[in-house]
Amino acid sequence: HRYDATDLAAIDPALGGDAAFARLIDATHRLGLRLCADVAVTHVHRDHPWFQDVRARGPASPWWTWFRVHRWPCFDGPDPGYDHYQKGQWQEPLLALDEPAVAEHLAATCAGWIDRGVDGVRIDAAADVPIPLLAQLAAAVKARRADAVVFGEVVPACLDRFAPAPLDAATDFAMAGALTGWLAGTTSADELTAVA
Fold first, then answer.
1. In the chain, which end has fewer C-beta atoms inside a 10 angstrom radius, N or C?
2. pLDDT tens across 19-36, in order?
């Protein structure tokens, strides 16, 4: 679905849709490989049906508490009246991750990807997700398949807070950059070792 999801459980038709994804899972497994779904749990696109309902009905919407709206009606542009994803992405309203119904939905979404046949999930922007919610997502995934992996996008400064628990693993951008530099010949072996 990419990072501007209007449905957290569907593959964007521009990427081939759900049928293409099923074929990808089958082909990956036939080759003896594993596949992880990349799940953005911090936000949705403003065209998501829940947020469209919030925009239309305001506090009367059943989804009102799923977002951090501080001014209604909402507007387009850099000050839309709701909390949104970083870097001025006002088209991507943040989900209220401390709302129990949101947490339950996200856990069911992650478990649903396992049910569809993926071997794990990567939590986008995991450093922005409360650790108890990450633990809930991981528990939902592991309840469906004990050997599934849950890893997250985490900045190097806080890797130790997220892996090995509640995540099985986390990205390490500093090591990836150093290794890429070493492979390209711009980083020495000593510099690479210093990052490790």
1. C
2. 999 999 999 999 999 999
